[in-house]
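Appendix B. Chain record.
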Amino acid sequence: MAVLAPKRDRHAAIRRLVADRSIGSQSELVDALSALGFDVTQATISRDIAELGLAKVMRGDRSIYVNPEALGPGARPPSDERLRRILADIPVTIGRSGLIVVLTGQPGTANVIAQAIDESTLTDQVGTVAGDNTLIVLFADEPALERWLGRFESLQVPAEPVNALTEALAQ
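Structure tokens predicted for this chain:
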């Protein structure tokens, strides 16, 4: 019988599966997780893949998922997409102390957020340090902190859906 498990357990299982097996599709990953007792949908797996930063690479004659560290340092260009998706799913509060920004999310999410920040185009920070649900972002000076905060807050805002009704109402 499949049971709902905490996200961190599911993420750990996904990381182990893609490290140990050649998983080439989301449906293969759903099947593998179901065999381990996880109750998951393809939509959940799609979000998990983005949050974990999994990449698809060619191995032999097929493409498979790999963990980001398998790509080696600097193999992936910086992108804000993963951070944007994580911030859409995880409510994050922002605090500040001097040249330190304190971000607080849900339990078990700080490392995921910190890694997404480190892989993003946000570069004004000196570094990030993550605990369980809280991470700190360190800055060398006030202008760098202010630039970073502005960019980070813009990534937190979900994009407005554009459709014909929205456009008609705007006119």
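Further analysis of this model is presented in Appendix C.
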